Amino acid sequence: MGQSPDIKTRRKRITFVPTAFPEEGFWKVKVPAISYDITADIQGKAITFQDCFVADTPFTLTNPEINFFRTYEVSISSPPGSDIILSWSSCVPTKAVLVTESGTFLTVNGFKTSEEIKFPSTVIDRTLASSVTDVALGYDSILFLIQGSVYYVTSSDVYRLGGSTIPDTGIKGIRGRMWCAYEYPKKNSEILSEFIIWTEDAIFLGRYGRVFFQIVDRISLKNLLGLKPNADVAFINTCYDSIVSEISFLIACTGCTSSEIFLLAEYDEEGLWFLKDFFLPAPTNRTLDIIVVHSAVSYMLLWDKNKIYYTYKENRVNGYVKVFGTDRLLSAASEGTTIQQIIIDHGGNTIIKMKNNVMYFFKFKMKDVIKLHTWENENKNCIFYVNPLGGFYLLTVNGSNIHRQVYPLKTEVFSATQISQEVCPYISFQHNMKLNVYYVDMKEHVTFWTQIVFLENLGLFSEITIHKPNLLKQKTYVNYEIARGICTKNKTITFYHDQDYSHVFQYQEALNKSEGIMIVELQPSSTGRQCTVFSKISYIYVGCPPSKHVAIEKPSVCKDENFTFSIPGQYLLDNKDKDLEVKYNKELYGCLIDVFYEDPFRPTVALYKHKKFVKFIESEYVLWEINGRTDFLYNATMAQVHCLREAQSWSVMYPEKEEGKKLNITTLDQLWGPHNYQSCFQSEHGETGNLKQTYEIMNHSGINSIIWPTDHSGIYLFKLKILDPNFSFCDFSIYFAIRTYGIAESPNNAKIAGWSVFVVCLFLGVLLITYFRYVKIFRAINSVDPPLSLHSHLNATDTAEEMKKEE
Length: 807
Prior knowledge:
By secondary structure, the protein is mainly β. The protein has 8 helices and 57 strands. The strands form 17 sheets. A 5-stranded mixed beta sheet has the order 31-35-34-33-32, with no helix packed on it. Strands 2-1-5-8 form a 4-stranded antiparallel beta sheet, with no helix packed on it. Strand 43 and strand 44 (486-496) form a beta hairpin.
């Protein structure tokens, strides 16, 4: 059937392709252990098996986890008669801690198995060991609240917090994250906190890596929120809000009105404080618990032991939860009990469990509850736990034994709503929002579509909720059709950026205001208890995408070594007397680009996303030599590139030099860039200036290039920077190095003349020495008797004849 299943994780949307073994009839997939991305789906082609479609199969990846304890001797537990305490890691829900009267237990596999956590006797006294009142889990640590002190537990250590950052005692509460913040894109490398700790007077946050710090105290909070000077505030409770970067603080205010009221203060981890449009008369016991659902705006439940108060859509919708089909408020007292637990899954499905094990079902964003059928008798000690796939487990505790059983919530809800014949108001809801994070840079856009199908006359629509809608502009298009009583509505929304920064006065400040994280949530306008479709939330990061980078073409393979070269001082900006020794940094500049000295050079800048080529950059850019070399020129003037007015240049952008002060070449990066770039192709009233000057700005399609000196070669270290203020939020720059070659060095006449004179003198000297030597030799020969001749008789006869003639 051509089937080829693969595995796709739910958070990071990473796809793992299998290796097929057709003869054996199975596929093998290698999936690395990623602790924060443990839920996945087995996906394949849509085929039928016995006239039924084979659905994608969700499952949980097993991970090797680090144990958070050693074999210590002191067991810790909750006080006698107290309720069970359950907490789990927001990003790895299979890791959870259960605190009972009999002990504290850790699981790393969703309570398939568990082990007891114990403390060393050197850290905690045995008399305090049975006083655990709260627990919170982080990425690799656990916090325990015991008798007003916080104990920090890791895989290697257990110790009590205190000192200059966290008080030793007086801690009123601790809280970890309800929803995982891993997908939340971090702006400027910021790190979100994972713990909240509060006392009567102050709030503290804890970050990964054992970092704790105070963010506010009571006096400062009054000033930040603009409360009356004579008002008195007290911290009641706190939690991470629906928006993962925000924290909600429930405070009691005495003196704000004639009676004590509860207010909600909000803190954004970017440093912003504001007071929400919320107030509630303080209950007599002055305590309220808080739980939120993950959303683009705040959806929150607040409850005491008896009643539940809901506040939706930033408190625009609020009230007390009622029982379905009646006007009666949900009251635990009417059942003769108290509220023990409210637990929620990723889809907003909520179970309200009473202490006597009576259970109600509540759908977040709805206003009433239905009573579920009895599951356990009132004497059982049990609590609910949500697994990573959204299913509910009921944990029954008997001493140190923990029994896990699946709770079929969907079946129970269908059974409870059978009499009322309640159905989901829509038939289907679909969308194309697949990713958790989308990145939008300047002049870019992202488009989503939704489709909702429902019975005619119900008037449903796709609701799009946006947090920080000011960051991007929007265009929306809606169409619908009705056929045989079925209505189909399609909605398309495009978020785009088109702001112009070329004329702003404070460029960087304008960019900071434009950057941010928009949250978009897609959901049906109405839901029901039998609906199984979850709302979808994505983050749109308006700013510099981390995957974007620019590069120029350069050799990818070269000698893997650094070397030192010298630059003659006469070619430097400051005209130094001495040559400059430079050590080449291959990690920064990459391989050298060899350029023939007669060839003009213009770098071609390309844009990439990850390693994928996107396009060649057409925007203007400028470059400068890092060491201040000035022995290169540009081959075009301002008039040749058709400037309408005098263009910017380095001579104009240099700051005025003070007497005796040299320009630091490393500061050139701040002298000229997108923040002060002015294009010469935009006409302005006034004089055009001198257009015969050299044009020092380059782009991909222009004629301007660098020309090299013809009398010497050299190595040039350049930095390139994009000038267009509307190109990207990224501060793009590139380092590269050029080495010119091909010049035949001109001869040195002085050296040649010197060597010629030397050679001639040497030759003449040798010649003279040889002459006098031979003269001396021949003189020595003449002073010696001649040798006897072999023809002596002839010589004698000739001599006698000559004598006769003389006579």
